[in-house]
Design a protein that fits this description.
The protein is mainly beta. The protein has 4 domains: 39-172, Glucose Oxidase, domain 1 (3-Layer(bba) Sandwich), CATH 3.50.30.30; 182-314, Immunoglobulins (Immunoglobulin-like); 328-532, no CATH class; 553-633, Sandwich (Immunoglobulin-like), CATH 2.60.40. A hairpin with a 4-residue loop joins strand 19 and strand 20. It is globular.
Amino acid sequence: MKRIFTSLSMVLAAALFAPLVQAQNQPMSDSKIKTNLAAARFSVNTPASLSGMKKVTIAPWGDQAVVPIINQPVVAGIDSLAINPLTNAAAVNGKVCLLFRGSATFRQKADYAENAGAIALIIVNNISGGPVGMGNTGTGNVNIPVVMVSDVDGQAINNALLAAQTVTVSLGSWNLGGAHDLALLGGYQSAPHAMVIPKAQLAKGASSQPYKNFTAGAIINFGTSTETSVAVSDSVIWTPTGGSGTTVHTGGYSVSSITPSDSVKFGFGGSTTSYSLPAPTTTGTFTYKYRINYPGPDATPEDNVYQNTMTVSDSIFCKSNYDFVKGRPSVSLSIQPANVTTDFSLGPVYYVADGGYAARKIQYSLSKNSVPTLDGEETYGLIYKWSDGSNGGVLDSFIQAPELKLVGYGFKTPLTTADSVFGDITLNIRDVVTPSKPCILDSNSWYVTLAQGTMNTFVGVDESISYFTRAYEQSQVFGYQEHPMALYTDFYTSLPMSTNAIVTFPFAGNGYYVDSSFFDRFYYTPAVALHLSKNKVNTTPPPGAVGHIGEPGVFAVYPVPATDMVTVDAKFNSTMKDVKYRLLDVSGKLVYKLDRGSLSTDKVSIPTSGLSSGIYHLLIIADGSSAIREIVIRK
């Protein structure tokens, strides 16, 4: 569920892990669950040329507009960036203030607007695209709602004010004054396997269970009247690159009655509404469209429709949306596990239907509080092949250490001032056995892609997509469980295999009932893209090739298994100026690090007495070249 963090209690013993938190933001109370499920609702009432519902993000550290602000005038603050206290406080007093993002922090803008007497603050994004999450850099309370609008919507409002037009808006977390007011809960309409899928994968696996589509979604009654005979129609339109659109699927689901007191309900199409997309022969887009149909008028019909788009790419997997203009995953926020005291990792799970392609690179972003760059940090990208039930395991949909095989990795250490917060991090993937060769993926296989961050950083996520509905329907109706995202390592004492497992299941003890509907607690999709080669790669090794070629030396790692200590004997190919040892757990979390100086041979002892039993990987980096070894710790 969106923006609900550490204050909610766990409901099943199986989910023994800390919740995620937003960068710089505070947890919200239980009393705000329902009102924040749909976040803020914002509409422009006048002028008519701008009227309608607009997408916004609301700062969780400000007032949540539980008491709505209805049809109130907007006044532009001076100066527009709020670098200093507003000079037109008299005009702003009692009105909704408009300011632009940039120069000053979000919190400073909010404080200056509130001090001027504003009843709410609208911040206009200064970056193309939708509104983003807003971090809090201050202390104490902000007692007015603070929302962000896109650059397009915000500039249109500002232009109207400059033209001496009266702009009025309504803002609330629920009812905006209408008796009849239904809406689709946008992020909870069933999503496809990923928002970007390579053409070859979908062409090969369109009818396979991981790539099937499902009809389901949530409806909200924002009004004050009970509504009956509510139906949602859905359709999917295929548009090949450079071509015209064709409807390839129609379906729907219904809700017989939805009252204001039981105001959030799910509809499911049933087992017969599982469907496969046509196998594409070219790149293009599948557009998913949903529309509410019910008798009578609706106060805000703009939110009765919803759509998202899945892109068929030439080589990219991405669970989040992907900005093809900027060439990077779309990011609206950054998160990390709560109470982080060590490194951590986040990342999604992808299904590869057609093997033989190389995992070329992994792409994501990191942020860091109150600084513009990531200077001095380090990061690792890891790709594991997951075979559920392998090595004596059980088909239980939990990703456990013995079921994982590290197949590819990339790294950047250290990060520098050139690595900006929320900037693009792209790591070339190396094969584990032969770092100089491409990492080839297998057919009909699941892969966990993890982006590691240090305890000072946050991994970029996309708030606009939730895979809960898809995973929930697959589990409840089809008995098939698909993981929308992997989180981080935790210890599951109830599992039959190693307790070293990656927490992934979105509603095994981590969901909550809102009215009669069950929702995932988290609404974050890790914005971690996996780039494949555009063509299949020749996997035949060159004559005379052996394992571990292309490494910076010869390494003996013992004992196997280890208990309290691991020893590394290193003989480098030449004198190395910079040698790094990094021990990573099964989720990619860094649990030990050692930096060494100029040397041609080395012998180091790595303490493991404080580590739990499980599988670990030792990464040895020498002057930019690398080797990696699997280590088993058994107590």
